[in-house]
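pasting for ref. prot 1 ->
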Amino acid sequence: MSRIVESLKKLNVENDAESYRQDNDRINKKVELTLSLEERVSLNQNDYILSVYGTQSEPEFRIGAALSDHSCIIYSVGESLNRTIMLDHNQSPIVGIKFSPISKNVLYIATNDGLITACDLRAKGKVVAEFKDNTENGKIKPLASFDLSCDERLIVGGTEHTSGDAFILFWDIRQSNSKLENKNSLLGGYWESHMDDITCLTFHPVKRNVLVSGSTDGLMNIFDLTQSSEDLALTCSLNTESSVDRLGWLTDDSLWCTTHTQTLQLWECESASAYATFARSDLAMSQNDDPDNCYLVRFHATNAFGQPFVLAGSSTVKGENLKCLNIKKNRLETYYEIVGNKQIVRDSWMHEKSGSLVTVGEKGTVNIWRQMESSIQQNSSHKLLTKIGTDRDRHHRTKPY
């Protein structure tokens, strides 16, 4: 995480002129990611893939692909892409999937009908635990997002706006009554911090009691879960003045988020300010790109390719383009061309050790992209970025309510 702080948050270049020139040359060459593995997950042309998540195990790793038909397909990835298990117990749309942070054999699936299930992949995907909130006369609150703490002790679910409130619900995974019994393992919840659907929840990668939430109400809220009340737990409220689609941690005190209007924002939590904002028009990398047909997939706060990058796509008459963009001198630039993409991409995930970028999308295809041997970077720091965001408009409220 500290390396990402230096390359993204501070964004100060201290390289000498020769090093800067060499790195600049590399960017201008538009190095490519090439298709390594590909799999169509369903024979039904109407099935598309909503999301993807994987394990960081090696040399082989696992990925799960959540489909629009409510099923989830598990693959083992190495030199080939092998389908291992199909999970079809879900009764409503999948809103998220996550592998256990401490076991590659346990997969959690959250669905819109208010249910989160834990599946044991060693037992052919058997559901071994369920988490739901049936405290209100048995009425289940529809989920829109969920996450697991880094030590797999807490599970959190974010609901749609329902009955006048949007809830953040907490369960203790360790409680024995979370097993398949007619008991409720709900620890409690928050319902005063958001006024609309909670679209994303992300625990801190190393601090198990720190959580950030994002909502269509435009707010990103950071909570300290050790506090005794929701009001005390809310340590920071950031107003994106948009509708939050996805978010994640850059560092201990900075965040990235993408919005439903296809903008990328980088935030400094302590100062409650966005130090970089990129609009949809910034995604157009060539004259053939119509900004209205450009879209953001996900920001990847990883140094697996040398520095963090944003994955973005565009639809043209010639096909579906996909690129990795980096941040340089207050603008986005092409970092990697991705050759051979044929679908609108809905989600992506990165296997750190192998440098494998996994994408999924609307044609129901899993694609795995890797660097060409000649383009593998020798220097993983790539301190290319100059300070950004200092001259941008920062008119926004930090405590809108």
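and prot 2 ->
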Amino acid sequence: MEESIEDQAEIVAPKAVVPKAGGPSSHELGHFWSSINWKAVMARKIVAPRMFMRSGLIRKDLLPTFAGEKDHPTTAVVENDEELRDFFKGEAGSGRRYVVKYSDSSNAYGMSFVDCGTQAGMDAGVMKVAKDMRVDNDKRVVQEYIEPLLIRDWKGGVKGGQGDLGGGEGLHKFHIRALLLVVGDMDVYLFDECRVLIAPEVYKEGLVVGGRAVGTKESRVEGEGGSEGGVDDEVDKALHAHVTNQSFNKLHKSYDERKHNVALHECDELGRGDNDEGGEGVFKEKGVWEQIRGICTRLFKKLSKDKRKFMTLVNTWELFGLDFLVDGSGKVWVLEANPEPSMKMFGMKRIDIEGKDPLSNVPDGYVPVYSRRKEQAMERMKAMAAEYRREKEAAKEVRGLEEVGPTGGERTGGEEVD
């Protein structure tokens, strides 16, 4: 009797690897990818909890190719400081703002901001990034800064109480973390609980403080994480107003996970106004959840067409964390995708979210967003329907010819009629 794939398979368990000094990259966060016996995976002898190729999703310089301008902020890749300066030529006074980051970093590491509201502000940001690039000789992703929808300290909040988000009364920036499970070749599911990660500092428009551009640790050469060394309180406040990464914001003295990491379905409470009627929640009738689902569907439909950038196998699966931002009009944008997403952020263990064997049984709580098998089946059905229509038209044409005599007259009882 032939063994089933379940009998043959073994789960490849992750091995702990200490990230290199200089800040973690996405490759290091997916540290045990290289420990998987991919030859055995290809032969379907083992099951792996990772995709074979995933760069099209997790690399910030490749994601825009698949997400597209409709769903992802305008993005450019600059290889050196000369290309960086060329990108910003003529931008001074435009009012546009940009986020500059490594193509493969995470946890807000090495993030800088360039504010083109004024020549001086833009120059400060460009000079900072150019200096960093000369130090580490690494390319950067320059991404348009999306003007965010903001969350208000909700009604009834008191300083230090449940309604106080930190930094005094005011509006706060946030982003949404969603979990996405890719199973086999390929079925994609979205976990139905998203987390809203809220900045602990009140939102500030300015990205230049005292002539200095706001940014996290300057380069990988300088070591790990945190705010830029020696910054003053105002620069640090600006960083924690604009950066919504949980690992980064935990460094802030006012950070409280109960207030700054909440479920998406609770955000109607966060969005109440200060008037007597309470106002509307920031997500009410904005369709945020449906927008996230739509973005994921479009993204994976494109990824499925390029196996060189995103190659799935029938005996693999992987859990990703996708970050989304809501702009002032309520439109949702995908910012980036992360391998090895934090489970602590969701207050759950990985096995509770991922399940023991998603290939056999996707756990409860997942909503399907894309299936290559279903798409291919639909394409076959459409092709069959098109072929049927062609055959029908051809048969109709033949019948028409059969009913017409050699001289063009209709046939009746075998005789031509003039």
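The first strand starts at residue 75 and ends at 78.
The CA atoms of residues 60 and 280 lie 34 Å apart.
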